[in-house]
């Protein structure tokens, strides 16, 4: 059985990072499935952590220009 590690936020369950598949000898055969291994990281993604302050409406326009200096 192949494994694919998927890192998800523990609260909102959004995907944080998807690793490449770690293939076994049966990889690619008919009926062979890939087992997803979920690793929980953090709490919520940036999209959901800002939801409370901006309920129901999309991301405010003009904020995107700040993105470059955020990191
Ligand atoms: Zn496999
Ligand atoms: Zn999320």
What does this structure look like?
- Residues 49-71 are annotated as: Disordered.
- The chain has a domain at 1-48.
- With 71 residues, the chain is α+β, with helices and mostly antiparallel strands.
- The model has no long low-confidence stretch (mean pLDDT 81).
- Strand 1 and strand 2 (15-18) form a beta hairpin.
- It has helices spanning 46-49, 67-70, and strands at residues 2-9, 15-18, 34-41.
- Strands 2-1-3 form a three-stranded mixed sheet, with no helix packed on it.
- Bound molecules: zinc ion (2 copies).
- Residues 9, 12, 14, 44-45, 47-48 line the site of one zinc ion.
Class from helix and strand fractions:
alpha+beta
Following the backbone from N to C, one meets helices and strands in this order, namely EEEHH
- Residue share in helix: 10-25%
| Separation of the first and last Cα atoms | 38 Å
Mean pLDDT across all residues, rounded? 81
Instruction: Outline the biggest β-sheet.
Output: 3 strands, mixed
Q: Any ligands, ions or cofactors bound here, and which?
A: zinc ion
Q: Helix tally? A: 2
> Which stretches are low in confidence, meaning pLDDT under 50 for 5 or more residues running?
none
CA-based shape = elongated
How would you write the strand order of the largest sheet?
2-1-3
Number of strands: 3
Radius of gyration: 18 Å
Residues in β-strands, percent: 25-35%
Region (Disordered): 49-71
